[in-house]
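Need residues for this backbone.
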């Protein structure tokens, strides 16, 4: 992390040089040094505002993606509570991987620890600043209908997608092909995050269907265990919103 000089560091040389120069050139030199010191103080006092503006600019640049990720990583439980655990992890990930490195590179590293909560608040505000199109209310609650819904979204993206028979699907609800690439998908319309059992099943389905890629699609996010297993087995974890833009 780049070290940012303190205000005392910045003032030391103007005052020292100005004091020495005043011995030779009189009070005018000391006045110039004082003016330089004043400019440095004012610049330093405005640093917090510049820090906030920089964070806002970074978050604003990604606000559409943040808004979408907030929706994808949140869900309402059977009791009507909005569960934001997945979004809070995503928000911290964005702050740590996108915002903080830029702040450090621009000389604000010394402010990060004390203002981390402020960074998160700014990211949160950016995620809420975008009015997304209404979430597709056509997404059915019935499991079989949800599988067909996911297949339709893949077809819109140019895939030749079909649902499998409930019996003998070996963990694949949808099989899709495009440009010689085969994708197997397990679809979970849940009221809670999907666990790693779904990941295990779609890994088996990838082998059974001789597919190139595997994905689990849900409306409700994924547990930490599911994410860990998916990363280890190269399985995509997706909200159904992401299906039209899927790339493999």
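Answer:
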């Amino acid at each position: 992390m780049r070290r940012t000089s303190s205000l005392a560091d910045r003032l030391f040389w103007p005052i020292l040089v100005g004091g020495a120069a005043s011995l030779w050139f009189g009070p005018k030199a000391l006045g110039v040094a004082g003016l330089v010191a004043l400019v440095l103080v004012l610049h330093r006092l405005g640093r917090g505002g510049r820090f906030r503006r920089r964070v806002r600019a970074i978050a604003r640049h990604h606000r559409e993606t943040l808004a979408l990720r907030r929706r994808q990583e949140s869900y309402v439980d059977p009791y009507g509570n909005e569960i934001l655990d997945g979004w809070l992890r995503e928000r911290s990930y964005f702050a740590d991987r996108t915002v903080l490195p830029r702040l450090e590179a621009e000389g604000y590293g010394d402010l990060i620890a004390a203002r981390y909560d402020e960074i998160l608040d700014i990211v949160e505000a950016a995620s809420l600043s975008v009015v997304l199109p209404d979430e597709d209310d056509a997404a059915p609650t019935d499991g079989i209908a949800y599988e067909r819904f996911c297949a339709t979204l893949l077809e819109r993206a140019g895939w030749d997608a079909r649902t499998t028979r409930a019996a003998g699907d070996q963990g694949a609800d949808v099989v899709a092909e495009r440009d010689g690439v085969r994708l197997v998908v397990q679809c979970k319309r849940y009221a809670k995050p999907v666990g790693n059992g779904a990941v295990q099943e779609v890994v088996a389905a990838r082998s059974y269907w001789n597919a190139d890629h595997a994905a689990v699609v849900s409306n409700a996010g994924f547990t930490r265990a599911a994410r860990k297993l998916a990363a280890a087995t190269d399985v995509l974890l997706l909200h159904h919103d992401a299906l039209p833009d899927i790339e493999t």
